[in-house]
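Fig. S4 source data, part A: sequence.
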Amino acid sequence: HVNLELVNTKKYHDKFEGLAKNKAVSESMYKEAMEILKSRNNTLYEEIVALDARTGKKLVKNTSMVNKKYHTCGFSSDETEFLNGRKSPFEVLHNHPNSSYPSRDDIKKLFDREWQSGSTISCHNGTVYRIEKLKPMENIDILIEKTYNKNKSKLMGYTDAVIEEETSKDVIETLQKSKHLNFLVR
């Protein structure tokens, strides 16, 4: 469940300070994170929201996977078309009920969506992860797949969750070194 003792404090609010380039966007991310965490408390479901990267205005909120599939969220094809059709930067925020690292899919979607500038993950334990795209990355699929296969061999016998987290950590580290990505943990 959500760590409400932490989430309902100024300390948690401060984790969103300066997270985005614009104060209004950071504040909007905080408000949306609070809504999502309250509605997903004591569940394994995720919600996702897209915010205008300049104003913080809510563009799309998708809760379609709630009560259908654990640990999954995303935008419909119509929502994706709307977001890309705006030709203006947007931010994505979603929750991770298991308080896990950004997933391979979180990283892939950040680079697949041309106009998405960042992804913030609000975890149920109070951790906030932020991945920010600094420049486009060609062949993100290849980097992720190679890294996953390497870790799957190296970590044989470990759980899928361990392999996934190590893969995400390695991909993020590679993208940081190549200056494609900025990564924050708060």
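Fig. S4 source data, part B ends here. The longest helix spans residues 23-40.
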